[in-house]
Amino acid sequence: MSKSAIDTGILLETGTNELEILEFYIVEVLDNGEEVKNYFGINVAKVMQVIETPNLEPPESAPHPSFMGTIPLRDLILPVLDLSVWLELNMPKTERDIVIVTEFSKTVTGFLVSGVTEIHRVGWGEVIPPTSVISQSTDAIVGLVDKGERFIQLLDLETILTQIDPQPESNDVPMTDREYKILVADDSATIRMMVEKSLADAGFKPIITNNGNEAYQKIFALKAQAEAEGKDITEYVDLVVSDIEMPLMDGFSLTKNIKEDPVLQKLPVILYSSIITKELKHKGDSVGADLQITKPDLHTIPEEAMKLIHGRI
Predict the structure, then answer these.
(1) How far is CA 134 from CA 87, 129, 250, in A?
(2) Which pLDDT tens digit goes with each residue over 143-152?
(3) Per residue in 215-225, pLDDT tens?
(4) Is-same-fold flag (3-163; 181-312)?
(5) How do the domains of the chain map onto residue ranges?
(6) Which GO terms describe its biological process (predicted)?
(7) Which residues, other chains included, contact 62 with Cβ-Cβ below 8 Å and sequence gap of 6+?
(8) pLDDT at 113 over 80
(9) In what order do the strands lie in the sheet with 35-43?
């Protein structure tokens, strides 16, 4: 199945706080022998195509237990990861299994699953933040979508790849000339820690929030505090850094709210995602984002933040 075959043809309007997800499932064999389906979802924009299982046998020297080997696809050689191993699900292998081929964060990767179901258009406001139980089991589940008879667990595949193959830290960290305050919004604990460390190492003071809605509440609370104390908003926050895909409120909607506010609109906003397509770039521009970068370039945030702050001063 090619990407065009799974495309719905619906272009989501900017600021509507919506996304399209490809729902798939992983069959799990329980201790009593019963088979159950676990349902998951990923952003359709990250899916290149869906192919039949290549029936790989994991090599003995696999860099990670989920690594099954590599396969040729077009002019690429891509790794295939068994998603059930990562999620610690006892998935029986069958000839009906499929591989979802994804492209994001400048990498192409295949993920082995049991099958796909359909595509859903959902609002980020419908996405339920993961419970503490789910958060403890894996950081890769960033939210739940209630479909009545089942829950779809939204997966952050970037978190999985980051934990399997951590990105090297940059040794060339620019230092700020004073302690600028950066509001950070990301629903992935792994990415939050990476961004927080990068900013702190460069001399910034990160203000960390777990999703767009929490960031929205925080920045408008800071605005109210600044007004009550008769101070400029930059006494409390200098710049906003936000992921695009988050439960409750996405980065586009957060940016739109900031840029439409007469007090907050002067604050630079950096958006990031695992993919920045022409369509996403257009959406970010339309809501007033000052810069959009991909997650492999997160290490550049301190330098880019300094440029934007100094450009404002």
Answers:
(1) 11, 10, 21
(2) 899 998 999 9
(3) 999 999 999 99
(4) no
(5) 3-163, 181-312
(6) chemotaxis; phosphorelay signal transduction system
(7) 68, 69
(8) yes
(9) 115-123, 18-29, 35-43, 151-155, 141-146
Q: Are 157 and 110 in contact (CB under 8 A)?
A: no
At a CB cut-off of 8 Å and minimum separation 6, what does 32 contact? none
Q: Which residue matches tokens 């990562």?
A: 86
Copy the structure tokens of residue 111: 């993920």
Cα-atom radius of gyration of the chain, to the nearest Å?
A: 20
Q: What is the mean pLDDT of residues 279-308?
A: 92
Strand partners, 264: none
81 Cβ partners below 8 Å, 6+ apart?
Answer: 64, 66, 67, 68, 109, 110, 111, 112, 160, 164
CATH number of 3-163: 2.40.50.180
Token reading at 70: 């590599």
Which long-range CB contacts under 8 A does 59-68 form with residues at least 24 apart?
Answer: 63/164, 63/165, 64/164, 66/164, 67/164, 68/112
The highest-level CATH class for domain 181-312 is alpha beta
